[in-house]
Amino acid sequence: MGRKRTSGLQKRWGCWQIDKKVFGRRLCESTGTGDLEEAEKYLARRIEEVRQATVYGVRPKRVFKEAATKFLLENHHKRSIRSDAGRLKVLVDYIGDLPLDSIHMGTLQGFIQARRQGGIKSRTINHGLQVVRRIVNLAASEWIDEFGLTWLATAPKIKLLPEHDLRKPYPLSWDEQARLFAALPKHLVNMALFAVNTGCRDNEVCSLKWEWEQAIPELQTSIFIIPEEIVKNGEDRLVVLNRVAYSIIEQMRGQHPEYVFTYRNRPISRMLNSAWLRAREAVNLEQVRVHDLKHTFGRRLRAAGVSYEDRQDLLGHRSGRITTHYSAAEIGNLIDAANRVCESGKERPALTLLKCSRAGKSRESHEVDFGDNAKISVSR
Questions:
Q1: How many other CB atoms sit within 10 Å of the CB of residue 81?
Q2: E strand spans, the chain
Q3: CATH number of 321's domain
Q4: Which residues of the chain have a pLDDT value below 70?
Q5: Whether the predicted model's global pTM rises above the 0.85 cut
Q6: Within this chain, do residues 39 and 71 fall inside the same structural domain, yes or no?
Q7: Whole domain around residue 97: which residue ranges?
C-alpha cells in the first residue's frame, strides 16, 4: 500500500502544484519539480516561511532571480527594458540563487572580476551594478509582500566602479574623415555623411523614416522629428539639415517607401558593422566609433562659434526647452549654424585643447587638423 501524500499538492502537467490554506492565507504556486518527495520538502519550507512571517514578522527568503523577474514584469514599458534584461541575464549567472539579504559588494565581486577578465569596461559593468542597486532599493522600500513586509529590511550600499578606462571621444579631422569615408561602401558613406552633419546617433540614422520628415516651405527645406521612443534621452528630437545633410536626403528620396537609409532595399540595423570595422582598419583609424561622428559634429560647431544653446538643440541634448516648437526664423538660424561646419566652409576658427602636465611625467603633443586654420593641439 503506497504512502499517503501531503495534502495540498496536486500534480499537473508533470509538476507538483501547491494549493493549500496556511494560517488563513491561500498558498497557490508551483513547486518546480515532478518529484513528490522534493515537492513535499518545498511545501514544508513554504509553510514554515508563512508561519515565521505571520507569527514573528520574519521575511521569507527570496532569491535575486525572483526579484529580477518582478523588476522586468513591472518595467516592461521602459525604453531601456531590453538592455536591463540583457544585464540581468548575465547577473543571474552569478547571483541568481543568492538570497536578497546576501547581496552586497562582497558577493558581487565574482561578477565584477569575471567581467573585467572578459575585457568589459568599467562603465558597462556599472550599468549592471546600477540595475542591482535599483532592484535592492525597490525591495527595501516599495515591494510589499502578502504579509505587509518589504522584501528587504534595508538595502545594501552598491558602489559603482571608478571609470578610469573610459574611452575618450575622438573627433575626426577633415583628412581622417576623407580617408575613412573613402574606404566605406556607398550606403555607409551616405549614412556617415548624414551623421557627421546632423549629430544623429547610430540608431537614429538607421531608424530614420520618411514619415518623420516635415516640410518648411518658408525656407524651401525640411526637417525631421524623431519620436521619443527612438531617442536616447526620451524626448522628441529635431534634426536640422545643413547643405550636406539635405543633399543626402534628396539623394535617398524615392529609394524606399518607409526608411531613408537602406541596403539592398532593406533597413540597416546598425552602422557599426563589419564593413565599418574593415574600413577603419584599412586606414589605420581603429579607434573611431560611429558615435565619434556625433562628437565630430559637436566639436566643429563649437569651433565655428555656435552658441551653447544652439549646439544643444542641434545635437539633440536634453535642455529643458521645448525643442520641437520653433518658428521658421528659429529653424533658419539653426540651419545657418549647421551650415558653418560644412566642409566647403572657408572660415573655421581654431580650437585648442589644453591639458595640464602631470608631475614626473613627460608629455608629447600632436596636432589634429580640422581644416583651414583649425587645429587641435593635444598633449599626451
A1: 13
A2: 9-12, 15-22, 25-30, 213-216, 221-226, 237-239, 262-263, 266-267, 365-369, 375-379
A3: 1.10.443.10
A4: 1-5, 23-24, 52-58, 320-324, 343-380
A5: no
A6: no
A7: 64-141
